[in-house]
Amino acid sequence: MDIYNILTIAGCAVAILIIGKIFLFPIKKILKLLINTVLGGLLIFIINLIGGIWGFTIGLNIITSIFVGILGIPGAIILIILKILL
Fold first, then answer.
1. Which are the contacts of 68, defined by CB distance < 8 A and separation ≥ 6?
2. CA of residue 20 relative to chain centroid, distance
3. Tens of pLDDT, residues 3-44
4. Which of 20, 30, 64, 69 could form a disulfide with 37 if both were Cys (CB 3.0 to 4.6 A apart)?
5. H-state helical runs in the chain
6. How far apart are alpha carbons 68 and 41 in whole angstroms?
């Protein structure tokens, strides 16, 4: 192996690492948003299931889904507090 092959391999390795870092960041954010949405939606479903006995329900629509998707379980708790106060 001569120096040009070693430099080419090293350059490709660095390029792969840089490209991997660029694409890995958005995937982490998307996975976090997906996990928050599932956990928050599950929490709202459980609240509606249990609270339905006493007439306490939270509507699961696009706005509450986005809110819970961004904030996760704390977002669901905020929706519960807003429902109680309003």
1. 36, 37, 40, 41, 43, 44, 75, 76, 79
2. 20
3. 777 777 777 777 777 777 777 777 777 788 888 878 888 888
4. 69
5. 3-51, 62-71, 73-85
6. 7
